[in-house]
């Protein structure tokens, strides 16, 4: 699992997925103090690295020229993410006509590799390409920050607890194994590496040497990058028999309270795909209305959750899924987005989460993030109140919740 890397990749390095709130600002220190503290941190790291089998020579090579924290990396931890960016805005950037054309050209050039990847992992080429496109614009925006420097800066600052210290040790393990040199191990400011933006721990668990040259090279080898994406998705449970989801139209009077069941049951209830094709006979799906009843309606399968495991954002998962469809020749979404619809900002979502938690309807954190847990809670509340259960959080819903304590 890499619950962080994708967020950093899609949100914090500029592609604009819903991102996380900034962490606490590190204490201001003068450069010599910072360097001394950093050197002390490296000394505490050294025995842990040795215990993991990292040779002193590898350790020295990894930190050659890394003598203090990277101020640019620290500055990024203090930036606010665009948490409440609407899904439709995100899709415009992530699924552009330029990106579709570029992805289709890549698909043609890499057809044989993609066929071999499909055969080995059972993940469709369009999904693999869509990940590649959203994560790094097909390798063009993989980030050029030295990964060891970025991770050491975050680890020393204890940003997000011990997460980055563990990732730093994983990065050293990769260097010890010789998959890449320290100079070529680069990525985002948050340690997401190469064309697939894997954190080092995900690399160790899922990266593959698909071109067979003896190195797992997600930085320079397109077959390795693409194979690693498919390897990751297969490990997380990608079901080759199903798509990620389908845009659908609901019949008049549809009962939204029954929102998760077999695809065949949805078909019997009059749900139709917007592209006119039949829904699959087998498989379970859930209704997903990311803009409420006024916008596009989807049936999403468990493969949608596999994508979300890569980056826990609905917008991200929908962008990958829709881009995959578009790369494969599907038209744009049939239904328009509710562009001017009132939306809750992060504080509003947090207030909604707190209110739903008070009623015993929501068990997650009041983190201001829309996702399956909040959707489920909103649906329960809507059903209890006799409202259409689209699971969509709106200002009106929050007002209603506040008006009836
Ligand atoms: Ca390779």
Secondary-structure map:
Layout: H1 5-12, H2 31-51, H3 56-63, H4 71-77, H5 87-94, H6 97-109, H7 111-121, H8 125-136, E1 145-146, H9 147-156, H10 163-177, E2 186-187, H11 200-206, H12 222-235, E3 245-249, E4 260-262, H13 263-268, E5 272-273, E6 284-288, E7 297-300, H14 302-310, H15 314-327, H16 346-358, H17 372-385, H18 395-403
Antiparallel strand pairs: 1-2, 3-5, 3-7, 4-6, 6-7
Helix pairs in contact: 5-15, 6-8, 7-12, 8-12, 8-15, 9-10, 10-11, 11-12, 14-15, 16-18
Bound molecules: calcium ion.
Calcium ion binds at residues 209, 211, 213, 215, 217, 221, 224.
Q: What would you say about this model in short?
A:
The chain has 405 residues and is mainly α. The protein has 18 helices and seven strands. The protein has helices at 5-12, 31-51, 56-63, 71-77, 87-94, 97-109, 111-121, 125-136, 147-156, 163-177, 200-206, 222-235, 263-268, 302-310, 314-327, 346-358, 372-385, 395-403, and strands spanning 145-146, 186-187, 245-249, 260-262, 272-273, 284-288, 297-300.
């Amino acid at each position: 699992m890499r619950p962080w890397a994708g967020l950093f990749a899609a949100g914090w390095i500029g592609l604009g997925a819903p991102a996380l709130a900034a962490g606490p600002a590190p204490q201001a220190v003068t450069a010599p103090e910072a360097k001394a503290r950093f050197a002390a941190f490296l000394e505490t790291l050294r025995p842990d690295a040795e215990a993991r089998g990292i040779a002193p020579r590898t350790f020295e090579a990894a930190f050659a020229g890394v003598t203090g924290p990277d101020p640019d990396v620290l500055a990024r931890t203090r930036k606010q993410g665009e948490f409440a960016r609407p899904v439709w805005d995100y899709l415009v950037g992530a699924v552009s006509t330029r990106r579709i054309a570029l992805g289709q050209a890549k698909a043609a050039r890499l057809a044989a590799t993609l066929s071999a990847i499909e055969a080995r992992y059972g993940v469709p080429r369009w999904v693999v390409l869509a990940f590649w496109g959203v994560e790094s614009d097909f390798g063009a925006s993989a980030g050029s920050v030295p990964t060891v420097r970025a991770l050491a800066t975050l680890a020393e600052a204890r940003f997000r607890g011990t997460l980055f210290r563990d990732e730093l040790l994983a990065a050293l393990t990769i260097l010890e194994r010789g998959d890449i040199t320290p100079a070529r191990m680069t990525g985002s400011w948050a340690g997401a590496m190469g064309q697939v933006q894997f954190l080092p721990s995900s690399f160790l668990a899922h990266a593959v040497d698909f071109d067979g040259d003896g190195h797992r090279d997600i930085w320079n080898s397109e077959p390795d990058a693409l194979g690693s994406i498919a390897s990751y998705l297969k490990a997380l449970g990608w079901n080759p028999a199903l798509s990620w989801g389908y845009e659908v139209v609901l019949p008049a009077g549809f009962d939204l309270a029954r929102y998760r069941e077999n695809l065949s049951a949805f078909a019997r209830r009059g749900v139709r795909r917007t592209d006119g094709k039949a829904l699959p006979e087998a498989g379970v799906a859930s209704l997903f209305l990311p803009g409420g009843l006024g916008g596009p309606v989807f049936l999403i399968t468990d493969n949608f959750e596999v994508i979300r495991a890569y980056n826990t954002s609905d917008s991200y998962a929908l962008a990958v899924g829709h881009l995959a469809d578009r790369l494969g020749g599907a038209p744009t979404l049939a239904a328009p987005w509710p562009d001017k619809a009132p939306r809750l900002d992060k504080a509003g979502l947090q207030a909604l989460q707190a209110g739903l938690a008070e009623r015993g309807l929501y068990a997650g954190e009041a983190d201001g993030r829309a996702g399956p847990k909040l959707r489920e809670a909103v649906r329960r509340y809507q059903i209890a109140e006799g409202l259409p259960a689209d699971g969509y959080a709106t200002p009106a819903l929050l007002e209603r919740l506040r008006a009836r304590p």
